[in-house]
Amino acid sequence: MKTIQVVAAIITDRERIFATQRGYGAFKGGWEFPGGKLEAGESPEEALRREIREELELEIEIGSLADTVEYDYPDFHLSMDCFFCRIKSGTPLLKEHEAARWLTRENLDSVNWLPADQDLIKKLKNIDWR
Prior knowledge:
The protein is α+β, with helices and mostly antiparallel strands. Strands 1, 2, 3, 4, 5, 6 and 7 form a seven-stranded mixed sheet that branches. A hairpin with a 4-residue loop joins strand 5 and strand 6.
């Protein structure tokens, strides 16, 4: 099975986490953390800065690795490094997503998360991300 390496930004602002709704592809309409595929020669951090700049026109500060999600979709294996991040500059501009929301711990389940994100959401409910 083919493995796809991706990175995701868990963008936090005090008690809130930024979630985006996919605007394209097989999982259109599902909710996820913004990010994307690594390009040849990129570190995960370089890929994450590039992807967030391209998708949201934001400059971010990358913090610690929150988790590495390993998930088998029917057609591929996903390996996703998820980093805690903060916005350094800019206001989110949705270039590839249908919608975005700031969610609190109490309403993390208010959106339909993609399958690969569901265990990560459970983990985020039980840790301090401030």
